[in-house]
Amino acid sequence: MSLADRVKAAKAAEVTLDGHREEMRQELRRKLHYKVVEGLGPTLYDRQMSDAELKLRVMEMLEWALDQEESVPLSRADRLQLLQEIADDVLGYGPIDPYLSDPEVTEVMVNGPHAVWVERGGKSFRTDTRFVDSTHLERIIEKIVGQVGRRIDESTPMVDARLPDGSRVNAVIHPLAIGGPFLTIRKFSVDPFTSDDLVAMGSLTEQVAGFVRRCVQGRLNVIVSGSTGSGKTTLLNVLSSYIPDNDRIITVEDAAELRLNQMHVLTLEARPPNLEGKGQVTIRDLVRNTLRMRPDRIIVGEIRDGSALDMLQAMNTGHDGSLTTVHSNSPRDTLARIETMVLMAGMDLPVRAIREQVASAIDLIVHLHRMRDGSRRVTHVTEVVGMEGDIITMQDLFLFDYGMGIDEDGKYLGRLKATGIRPAFSDHLENMGISLPPDLFAPEPFAR
Fold first, then answer.
1. Is residue 308 within 8 Å of 341, Cβ to Cβ?
2. Where in the chain is the domain with CATH 3.30.450.370?
3. Which residues pair with 160 in a beta bridge?
4. How do residues 384-432 score in pLDDT, each as one tens digit?
5. DSSP structural state of residue 254
6. Which residues pair with 365 in a beta bridge?
7. CATH pick for 195-441 out of 3.40.50.150, 2.40.128.20, 3.40.50.300, 3.30.300.30
8. This prediction's pTM
9. Under a CB-based contact definition with an 8 Å cutoff, are residues 203 and 378 in contact?
């Protein structure tokens, strides 16, 4: 055998040995994890125990369990790394813990145990992070959903939940997730964004921020629309911060995400059915119930079904100043989607009656778009004027100028510009003591 062949054979043997060691290490990790969970049992969920005490108990149990194992020789560095990994599994969220604590990461997407993606700066990147196997990932998912009283199993293989910090979680497991389980976590910043933050990021201009603030304070009904991940909930949080402190605010959500700092806030959260398929409380049930709670403002995290009818009725029965979000591609599409969702309520209403309700209830649509450069921008601020025949009439007050092009880094140079149209609800705001400066709507030339 030549020298080159001997070197190649030695490298192959080394790779095989390394692979075998890694398999043994992962098997040891699984075994130790089970021993810790079994040994501590209910102690892991003892709310009277501080985080520091619980971590100490877990590390003591891990040290003891590792001392009982002699199957895999470990260096001191490997031993410390293994202990930390298992502690993260037991106390936190395993391999994705570092991304959940990274302020630059806005989304964590687990496409199965060996494919973890994260979003930074609006763009997705694949990481080298891996779960041990599907069972390991499922345990992390069960821990997350168990913290908020939800469950996930073969009878309920999909769930929406949230982390203690309010981050939104969606999980899908077998038999629906082929190659899964799948886990998606949309993180929320520790400090909620303010309108100044959105202006600094270019999501909207200071001029438009001042305009929508006046609209919220003037008790106009506002819809925030946009595609998935366009920043609707973030903008809804900002808009809700404009509501006066003395207003009684009731929020309705699938999973509580809104963070309001006013003094008089009541939060309602929908509930899925139990094991027997009973006990479900839907968004629609909660919206109807809010009308009996004497709200000054109703904020619905998102309308996606027949709850649209109840929301419109609330807006049309004296509950001015309501806010909600809708998934859509444009302001016109927003109205079409609301019309469709009202029909989902099962009421046999003529289309014209629905459109009259929509035109009467909604005053303003603020539409967001997620750009190709990863940024999230408000692209339309559109007033719903009324009805002309069978058509709901709208007029754009501010539009994003795409014609300004992009820079050398691929970033959009455009911004929101006034179209020169003064809204029809100006007199209403004047009657509320809120003035709209004439120069707010001064027309600006659009690039060609």
1. yes
2. 95-190
3. 170
4. 999 998 899 999 999 999 988 888 888 888 899 999 999 999 999 999 8
5. S
6. 223, 382
7. 3.40.50.300
8. 0.79
9. yes
Residues 113-163: tens digit of each pLDDT: 889 999 988 888 999 888 878 888 888 888 888 777 778 888 888 888 878
pLDDT tens sequence across 316-351: 887 889 999 999 999 999 999 999 999 988 888 899
* Lowest mean pLDDT across 90-104, 219-233, 409-423: 90-104
Q: Where does 95-190 sit in CATH, by number?
A: 3.30.450.370
Q: How far apart are CA 94 and CA 132, in angstroms?
A: 10
Q: Which letter does DSSP use for residue 383 in this model?
A: E
Contact 197, 206 (CB under 8 A): no
Question: Which of 208, 206, 200, 197 lies closest to 399, judged by CA?
Answer: 208
Single-letter amino acid code for the residue at 252: V
Q: Confirm if 220 and 363 have CB atoms less than 8 A apart.
A: yes
DSSP E strands, 259-372: 265-269, 297-300, 323-327, 364-370
